[in-house]
Amino acid sequence: MTANPRVLIVEDSIPQARLYEQYLKNSQLDLTVVTTGAEMQKFVKETPPVLILLDYKLPDMDGLSILNWMNKEKFSCFVIVITAHSSVDVAVDMMRAGADDFLEKPVSASRLKTSVKNLLERARLQSLLDNYQSTFERKNYHGFIGSSLPMQAVYRIIDAAAPSKATVFITGESGTGKEVCAEAIHAQGPRAKKPFVALNCGAIPHDLMESEIFGHVKGSFTGAFSDRQGAASQANGGSLFLDEICEMDLDLQTKLLRFIQTGTFKKVGSNKLETVDIRFICATNRDPLDDVAKGLFREDLYYRLHVLPVQLPALRERGSDIIEIATTFLTEYAQEEDKAFVTFSPEVKTLLMEQYDWPGNVRQLQNIIRNIVVLHNDTIVQLSHLPAPLNSIDTTAIISKLSNNAPQQGNQTQVTMSTGLGDQIQPLAEVERNTIEHAINYCDGNIPKAAALLDVSPSTIYRKKQGWE
């Protein structure tokens, strides 16, 4: 990124636009103002900005139309929607259409500057990620196992996010490794030698949660027989990980928001204000925007936390990682239980990778491998060793497929070359184009994300797309 990131203000009220310029005058930004959607489209095509401040209601079109146009044209820049016509439904629609933040008029200077600062930090990290060229595939990374493309992208995001103090918001299904991700961010960053404190907001009773986070003084409530340090004090200088953040009560969400904004808190039963230096990392297995729409999660807290998002892929999306992870667990548990298991039969490998969706993800796979090792003793895991629900899967097709693909007897050797494009071998240029277009579709049109998966620079993809068109 340049020293002065380009920011476009799209606002039909000139006085309002000048107010935003005044708010941001000391932020070292290259600011430009346009008043219509058409002007905005022309500007974005000619000189793409890093960030757009977008008024929801313009004379010629609304914010949703503009976001849809940006998605169609594949313009990847950050967008803050600003509107006087605010509602939770509108906010959710805007965020799902690609907006990165949503502000309600009148916008305060502090709120605008905070949002702009957060998104420019994300843009800086994205730029580092785009320019990062990996020279090798990592099969293990701070507790993660797997070398699939989705996980390589996660590793690079962690590399880019770890040095920052910005809040990280991890999402993913239960069992995908959200706490492992949080620990990796901590271990990869400058706070690695400081404390990492984890709290599961869904496992602690609501009436004790405030005390768990902030601590309490003796006599502040029944059972408080002595002063107690909370997670906030314990994590001072390090990282505080709040798992299942969407389970937190609304009243406590308000206090947490104030704590994140100021870095100060009071213990339960105390009037003394304490200050700490903490890197916040949070996670949820739910859709936080749904909870915002339902009134279960504070909108302003969501925007404060959702600075650097990390989406962990489900196990079923990770291909051969399933076997890498299963083999690691098999080796570990065989040593613990003094068993002879060393590998899986081809039928079991095919079933694990292709015939089951793994709703419990890595945690479920771990439990299944432990079950097999404890209850059986062999060198190779066979279909007969699999517990429920895997033992109820029809394996006829698997056995038939492996039998048909078995090598021929005699001196002849079967060689099969798969291009992923059918039996016909296509020109290399067509294979390259199909691969790039598949990656873009897989990433819902997000070219920087597709570039990360393909391990190339986004500029390479933009240049090739321009050549095709």
Automatic annotation (TrEMBL):
Residues 144-374 form the Sigma-54 factor interaction domain. PANTHER family: PTS-DEPENDENT DIHYDROXYACETONE KINASE OPERON REGULATORY PROTEIN-RELATED, TRANSCRIPTIONAL REGULATORY PROTEIN. It comes from Psychromonas marina. The keyword Transcription applies. The lineage of its organism: Bacteria, Pseudomonadati, Pseudomonadota, Gammaproteobacteria, Alteromonadales. The modification 4-aspartylphosphate is found at D55. This is Sigma-54-dependent Fis family transcriptional regulator. Keywords: ATP-binding, DNA-binding, Nucleotide-binding, Phosphoprotein, Transcription, Transcription regulation. The gene is sypG. PROSITE patterns: RESPONSE_REGULATORY (PS50110), SIGMA54_INTERACT_2 (PS00676), SIGMA54_INTERACT_3 (PS00688), SIGMA54_INTERACT_4 (PS50045). The keyword ATP-binding applies. Pfam families: AAA_lid_14, HTH_8, Response_reg, Sigma54_activat. Residues 6-120 form the Response regulatory domain.
